[in-house]
Amino acid sequence: MKKTAIKFLLKSELFGLTWDIGHSNSANNIDEKFILENENKLYHFHIHDSLQKQDHMTLGTGEIDLKQRLGIAAKRNCRCVIETKTVAALKESVFWLARLSSP
């Protein structure tokens, strides 16, 4: 798929990219190469785990290399939103993140 319009918009300092890593995984990471080629325009992440076509899973329960993705978000100083379907899954995801960042 051509990304002519997105490439045009990326020329503007007012336009940036959001990477929804769960949906990206469910779509076989079809846009990952493009996103990483334009990493300097990456400002926002939607974070949830994914397993094949199952989305909005608690962090750490799917197949995404979350540590790698979160490393990119940290390197770029991106804003991140955790997306889950339940309050319990959100709490578990927050605890998972806390354990990840603990020494």
Provide a descriptive summary of the structure in words.
The chain has helices at residues 4-10, 21-26, 32-37, 66-76, 87-101, and strands at 17-20, 42-47, 49-51, 54-57, 79-82. It is an alpha/beta fold. The strands form two sheets. The chain has a three-stranded parallel beta sheet. The longest helix has 15 residues, at 87-101. The chain starts with a helix and ends with a helix. The model has no long low-confidence stretch (mean pLDDT 93).
Main features:
alpha/beta, three-stranded parallel β-sheet, globular, about 45% helix, two-stranded antiparallel ribbon, 5 strands, about 100 residues
> Which ranges are low-confidence, i.e. pLDDT below 50, for 5 or more consecutive residues?
none
Count of discrete domains: 1
**Rg computed from alpha carbons, rounded to a whole number of angstroms:** 14 Å
- Structural class comes to alpha/beta
Order of secondary-structure elements: HEHHEEEHEH
Shape: globular
Largest sheet, spatial ordering of strands: 1-2-5
Distance between the ends:
42 Å
Map the helices and strands:
Layout: H1 4-10, E1 17-20, H2 21-26, H3 32-37, E2 42-47, E3 49-51, E4 54-57, H4 66-76, E5 79-82, H5 87-101
Parallel strand pairs: 1-2, 2-5
Antiparallel strand pairs: 3-4
